[in-house]
Amino acid sequence: MATKVLIVDDAAFMRMMIKDILTKNGYEVVAEAGDGAQAIELYKEHSPDLVTMDITMPDMDGITSLKEIRKMDPNAKVIMCSAMGQQAMVIDAIQAGAKDFIVKPFQAERVLEAISKTIS
Ligand SMILES: [Mg+2]
User: Fold this and answer.
1) CA of 62 to the centre of ligand 1 (A)
2) How big is the CA angle at 39 (ends 59 and 49), to the nearest 5 degrees?
3) CA–centroid distance, residue 115 to ligand 1 (Å)
4) Biggest alpha carbon distance in the chain?
5) Number of folded domains that form the chain
6) CA-CA distance, 82 to 65, in Å (whole number)?
7) CA of residue 21 to ligand 1 center, whole Å
8) Separation of CA 11 and ligand 1 centre (Å)
9) What distance in angstroms lies between residue 52's CA and the mean position of ligand 1's atoms?
10) What is the CATH number of the domain that holds 37?
């Protein structure tokens, strides 16, 4: 069965880019969220094997959402998507239980490497 992924990013084109990389490589994108609160709801609904989580989003940011998801499911596998210059937030996220991080602009190879390491 294909690995189920929830993509979280406030930018539709970023979600589209990740989705494209994932679906071309045999992953199943079960849902997409545009903010942290929606991510929590969709996580409950779909129990994905993996989440790609943007850091900067309106309303609820990715680190808060990560923490809530990990509270609900301590085994949740979340990879953070960061922009340049967000090192401090990436460290926060890793301490809060994120498994890895990928930096925008995304390179397909790096995205796939982070995911296969995280789910293995
Ligand atoms: Mg964003």
Assistant:
1) 9
2) 155
3) 20
4) 37
5) 1
6) 14
7) 18
8) 6
9) 12
10) 3.40.50.2300
